[in-house]
Amino acid sequence: MRKEPSNKVYDVLRWFGLLPIAVLAAWLAWIAVNILGRFSLGSVGVTPDDFIGKLYFMTAGHAAIGIAFVYVGAKIAPVRRVIVAFILGGTGIVVSGFLLFPALMVRDWWAVWGGLFVAVGAGAVVWAVHVGEIDLE
């Protein structure tokens, strides 16, 4: 339940900005994971072209995309944040599934792996909201 008074114009702007800000947050999360990964893996001699480097970037970076998309989008919503988290989680999983098709057609197995982890990240946030580990209110 919201405790502060409602400002209708502000609420409408939050609803309109929800999807673009969620997509921007997902992109920024991917960039942040890649920058941090380059520093942390580079200090132990792992380059982004090594198998371990690619595995890290494709797993952690793409999972961060799904996590940030759902969490930030749900926090932007002015009301009904849990329902918004479920909708965004479903949207992220469906879009990830649609993007797996072109990756399979060109046989880019790293893109398939990344697409699966976008869905895993989005699903993990939805699950955490469902069981009460993440409180969105």
Main sheet specs? none
By oligomeric state, this entry counts as: single chain
Category by helix and strand content: mainly alpha
N-C termini distance:
7 Å
- Tell me, what's the shape? globular
Percent in helix: over 70%
Supply Rg.
17 Å
List segments where confidence is low: pLDDT < 50 over at least 5 consecutive residues. Answer: none
Overall average pLDDT: 90
Tally of DSSP β-strands: 0
Series of secondary-structure elements, N-terminal to C-terminal: HHHH
> Beta fraction of the residues?
under 5%
Number of helices: 4
Q: Would you give an account of this structure?
A:
This protein has helices spanning 8-42, 51-76, 81-105, 109-131. The model has no long low-confidence stretch (mean pLDDT 90). The longest helix is centred in the N-terminal third of the chain and has 35 residues, at 8-42. With 137 residues, the protein is mostly helical.
Please name the defining characteristics of this protein:
single chain, 137 residues, mainly alpha, 80% helix, globular, transmembrane helix, transmembrane
Helix/strand layout:
Layout: H1 8-42, H2 51-76, H3 81-105, H4 109-131
Helix pairs in contact: 1-2, 2-3, 2-4, 3-4
